[in-house]
Design brief:
By secondary structure, the protein is mainly alpha-helical. It has two domains: 191 residues, no CATH class; 247 residues, no CATH class. The protein contains 18 helices and five strands. It has a three-stranded antiparallel β-sheet with strand order 4-3-5. α6 packs antiparallel against α7.
Length: 438
């Protein structure tokens, strides 16, 4: 069992290692530095399970910090390989000095509160110490032209604190350097407005917290929604997050409407992390593929995928409010509204409306015009994917229940999540088919 002495030893090694990396970055060529980092990572992984090195690795039974550390440094170094070296040094400084300051302040017990974002509790004093130390580092060591840019500094600080407080099992040793490096690189390539982005992140964080407090999303679900928002806002850009926000906001609205009108227990329809990703994973991949290839086909995929999941959500939430019964595509009989594999006039109309709204607004956002033939193809493709989801629910969901890793309740991956992933994933196939036919 790790003791207080092992904590002190590991933090001392953490501090000394960080100082050595910063010093070596001034005197060693980049290629040699990368070899040293890879050697250090190999040493950490090879010695992790040896009892003789427990004082170095095992600050707690579940901590993986000494494994995350070299991986985080290597990722940061590779991401910023062609950027001014000051950026890499800053990521290591924050990892070295801010993290150590947080640990020291966290040892203070008097009047020191705590909070929990995911699984681990974070101390208030530790978070304040981390923030102040990071602010000092960014203010004094950022290279031109960002040196002295207070808005940019506050944005980098906000992201750094995010990466620290959401960590668990020592993963901040990876999220801090790698996350900061991605931010520096993204800004170099996009030159976005720091003030606008900072305001957007504050809105996203407040909205995610509110969704958790209202029991609309689970703790992990609200965090995943926030991180997805951060990705779309920073990496692809503002245009990409607008249809995503429309999907989330409209889904929350109609879910609450369904709960109130049908007098369901609050929190019964709470979304977990798997449900969040089941709805957005394909759109996320499409945006990433566009960033890599620059091919417009992935914009069309992105639009039609969001049209599909929005259509499915609107149909599921609005249909039972309008129609009390639905027609099952499995046994061709009428069942109570909300029955798996059921369709209703109200749900079908809602699905078509959702797909059309997402397709039209998103097409205009991306291309600055209305191409009605293409918008029609996108709308119908999303609508057909919604129907595919219904058929999969009717004929395949029950079979998925037999898979051992599936969960019918709680925060696990459910058969319905798999149906949603497979159903929405058919949207690009319908789009390609209709585009070919038209």
């Amino acid at each position: 069992m790790p003791n207080k002495k092992s904590h002190v030893i590991r933090k001392t090694v953490h501090l000394v290692t960080g100082c050595m990396i910063i010093a070596l970055s001034f005197i060693v060529e980049r290629n040699i530095l990368l070899i040293l980092f890879l050697t250090g990572a190999l040493f950490a992984f090879l010695t992790y399970n040896f009892r003789q090195f427990n004082a170095l690795h095992k600050t707690s039974d579940s901590s993986l910090g000494t494994l995350f550390y070299p991986v985080g440094v290597i990722f940061s170094f590779l991401i910023l390989y062609n950027q001014p070296p000051d950026y890499f040094r800053i990521t290591v400084m924050v990892l070295t000095f801010s993290d150590t300051a947080a640990w020291l302040a966290g040892r203070i017990l008097r009047f020191n509160g705590s909070f929990r974002i995911l699984t681990e509790r974070k101390s208030m004093y530790g978070t304040i110490a981390f923030s102040v130390t990071t602010l000092v580092i960014l203010y004094f060591f950022l290279p031109s032209p960002m040196a002295g840019n207070l808005t940019y500094i506050l944005l980098a600080l906000f992201l750094s604190v995010n990466m620290e407080v959401i960590s668990f099992r020592g993963s901040d040793n990876f999220t801090i350097p790698a996350g900061l490096a991605l931010f520096f690189l993204t800004y170099e390539n996009h030159f976005f407005d720091p003030a606008f982005l900072l305001a957007g992140l504050l809105v996203l964080s407040s909205g995610s917290y509110l969704l958790k407090r209202l029991n609309i999303l689970s703790r992990a679900g609200s965090l995943s929604a926030y991180l997805l928002g951060v990705y779309f806002l920073i990496v692809p850009g503002f245009i990409w997050i607008v249809p995503v926000l429309f999907f989330f906001i409209s889904s929350v609205f109609f879910t609450n409407l369904n709960t109130r009108l049908l007098k369901k227990e609050r929190g019964l329809n709470r979304r977990n992390v798997w449900q969040v990703f089941a709805n957005i994973i394909w759109a996320l991949l499409s945006s990433a593929m566009f960033m890599v290839t620059g091919n417009d086909i992935f914009i069309y995929f992105f639009i039609v995928l969001l049209a599909a999941v929005t259509a499915d959500t609107w149909a599921s939430e609005i249909g039972p409010v309008i129609n009390k019964r639905s027609f099952s595509v499995a046994d061709f009989k009428m069942h109570p509204a909300g029955f798996t594999g059921g369709i209703s006039p109200g749900g079908t109309t809602a699905a078509l409306a959702a797909s059309a709204i997402i397709s039209a607004t998103s097409f205009y956002l991306f291309f600055g015009e209305y191409n009605f033939s293409m918008i029609t193809v996108l709308s119908i493709s999303g609508f057909l994917a919604c129907f595919a989801d219904t058929f999969l629910g009717a004929f395949a969901e029950e079979k998925f229940m037999k898979w051992r890793f599936m969960s019918l309740k709680g925060d696990g991956l459910s058969p319905n999540d798999v149906v949603n992933i497979l159903g929405s994933g058919m949207a690009p196939l319908f789009f390609l088919l209709l585009t070919y036919l038209v």
